Amino acid sequence: MSLPRQLRTHQRRLAGVVAAIAEGRTPARDILAAVTPGGGKSLLPVIAAARLKAAGLIDRVCWVVPRDSLRLQAEEAFADPAWRAALGHGLTVRAAENAPDPCRGLDGYVTTYQGIAAAPALHLAEFRRHRTLLVVDEMHHLPALPETDPMAAAQAEAAPEEDLAGAWSRALLPLLECAAVRLLLSGTLERADGRGILWLPYRSGPRARTREVELDAPGWAVIGYSRAQALAERAVLPVTFGAMDGEARWRDEDGHSLGPHRLANRFPDETTRPALFTALRTGFAEALLHEAFLATRDLRARRRQARGLPPGTTARGLGKLLVVAPDQATARHYLGLLRRWVPAREAEEAVALATSDSGDAQQTLAAFRLRPQPSILVTVAMAYEGLDAPEVAVVAALTHIRSRPWLEQMVARATRVDPQAGPYEQQRALVFHPDDPLFGRFRLRMETEQGTLARRPKPRRAPGVLPLWLRDQLPPREGITPLESNALALRFDTLAPGPELALKRPGLEAAADAPEAPSVAERRLRARIGEMVAAQAVEDEAMLQGPRSGLGGPGLYHRYNATLKRVLGNRSRAQMSLLELEAAIGWLERNRLAEHQHLLAGDPRYAWTARKRAEWSPPARRGGTARAAEAPRRRQGG
To answer: Where is the Helicase/UvrB N-terminal domain (predicted)?
Structure first.
């Protein structure tokens, strides 16, 4: 089909990659789309699914998003009548719960990281039954795992505890291994904690103890769309920052009064975070919030006047304000302030709150996106990432978090072009923030670095010492009592476009008979092992339904992985050589993992399951051994 003219550069590139896959011109099955936040990633799954389904390469699409509020937006992307006509597709997906048959006769479904982690066996079975295009949105949320990444294996030995994000990665790994085609989306190629990202290929970085994403890895098609490119194509708006300086006083945990200390120091020091913590909960924050409120009010008044609307009239395209608060208690305080600043008759409708503890948060977010009111939304984290609300023109960044990926996502809420707000030249994103050196460092990195690095794991820390990346997202330690703060000066700066992402698409080149590089072969064999383990897990899961269903469960894939590790000398896939990986595949072709569960008997994580499985062995199946069929008779003395 011909490409619509309104497609952006990265969307056209993706269409070309998918066409090459569909026509057999490339063996690539991994597509990484590194698209600047706000650059229009939501259409990419539609383009890929439409082309691959028409070519007969996939049966279904599964789109995984990081939070529940984004599921409706994914449905809307497939249902948009303008794009259905432009792309000539008739695909429909649904927001699915963890119930059988998530597609319900449609072409695919949308779920969340949490949904996958809660019922991994259900989703894995779907992937084994149907050739699936797996779309993973905001891939940077998923850290690399020891099973597939040597550096993550070393990190796991230093700090064996697994966080929530690691659990998400563990649940998604078998789906990545079994998917027919993978489309990985992200607005940034680095994580705040410096770890690698699940499934992405890496090589040594330009600085010591770093790695960078291997953008030209064989077998991968990589599509980049930098902020500079998006600005050149008018896909996103330029950003003006309103940085407010101030000073703050607080009482430390020993009761000593400290300050006043300025926010706008040249370099971060021991007063930076306590001063920021205090400023965001006292008079400084109210002054900065008021500046953002006045800027939004003036913008809406100018746009009303340009359109000939009476004062106070609500309409789409007038501009909205997003307020990001440091915590829920402070968010409610900001909500009260804002409602006092608007006319009383409009307060309840014009200003809304969406936090994780409010029961109507999803409805509030939908109204903020799709209706003229509310025109002001106060939140903590729910609306910062992936929120498709082009009417947001002003952001009040009243948060202490200073990690680059987080702040980039927040800023991007205001950079979307609003088709109802007039010509592009008359639109601009305006972000108000405290003028602290940490935010200044974020802006400098955004202008000068591509952000594709991952740091090597550091030596294990002493108990009770938080890592820097976590401290970067937390307020100062308990004991800080904010006393007072005040605003001093406000200055405005426009963010420079930033560097280009030098991304390549090797998969589009003509396939050559060049020898396969060892690192590429290792990745291929590790993925093949994962797929074979997943196949056995799905087959045995079906056999374990009914009275013995407790022997299966959502962790069967990972128990089988642990069994394989024991069989192969306690070496994980990430640590194996090429010969060892090939031997593992040969062993899996001849054996069933269900017959070797006794190897987990000494592991407390699997002890109960191993005892129960000793009473059961699956009958012989295609690809199994005769020993599997004879096992029940041996236990009966036959």
So the answer is: 7-145
Write down the domain spans for the chain.
27-225, 239-494, 518-635
Residue 454 three-state SS:
strand
Helices (DSSP H) in 308-341: which residue ranges? 328-341
Query: 27-225 and 239-494 share one CATH topology?
Result: yes
Q: So what's the pLDDT on residue 456?
A: 57
- 27-225: what CATH class? alpha beta
Residue 162, pLDDT score: 60
- Who's near 56: CB < 8 A, 6+ residues apart? none
* Residue of 20, 90, 21, 10 whose CA lies nearest to 50: 90
Q: Can you say how many angstroms the Cα of residue 237 is from the centroid of all Cα atoms in its chain?
A: 22
The answer to whether residues 369 and 388 touch, using CB atoms and an 8 Å cutoff, is yes
Lowest mean pLDDT among 185-194, 273-282, 475-484, 531-540: 475-484
pLDDT for 504 beyond 60: no
Return the closest-CA partner of residue 66 out of 336, 294, 383: 383
Bridge partners (DSSP) of residue 575 are none
For the CA atoms of the chain, what is the radius of gyration? 27
Q: Count CA atoms closer than 13 A to 379's CA, side-chain side.
A: 23
Structure tokens at 190: 């680095």
Q: How, if at all, do strands 481-494 and 239-251 pair? A: antiparallel
Q: Which residue has the higher pLDDT, 549 or 457?
A: 457
What 3-state class would DSSP assign to 317? coil
Find out whether 45 and 135 touch, Cβ atoms under 8 Å.
Answer: yes
Could you list the beta-strand ranges (E) of 443-584.
Answer: 453-455, 481-494
Confidence of residue 130 (pLDDT cuts 50, 70, 90): very high
Element (H, E) at 528: helix 518-543
DSSP β-ladder status, 429-434 and 239-251: parallel
Strands (E), 216-325: 220-225, 239-251, 257-262, 320-324
Whether the link from the prior residue into 81 is cis, omega within 30° of 0, is: no
CA dihedral 618, 621, 627, 629 (to 10 degrees): 60
Tell me the backbone φ, ψ of residue 379, rounded to 5 degrees: -150, 175
**Residues 414, 388: Cα–Cα separation, whole Å:** 10
What is the distance between the alpha carbons of residues 424 and 390, in angstroms, rounded to a whole number?
Answer: 12
Calpha distance 73→63 (Å, rounded):
11
Tell me what pLDDT residue 265 has.
86
Q: Which range is least confidently modeled, 388-392, 431-435, 497-501?
A: 497-501
Average pLDDT score over residue span 217-230 = 89
For the domain bounded by 239-494, which CATH number is listed? 3.40.50.300
Query: What is the pLDDT confidence band of residue 466, given thresholds at 50, 70 and 90?
Result: very low
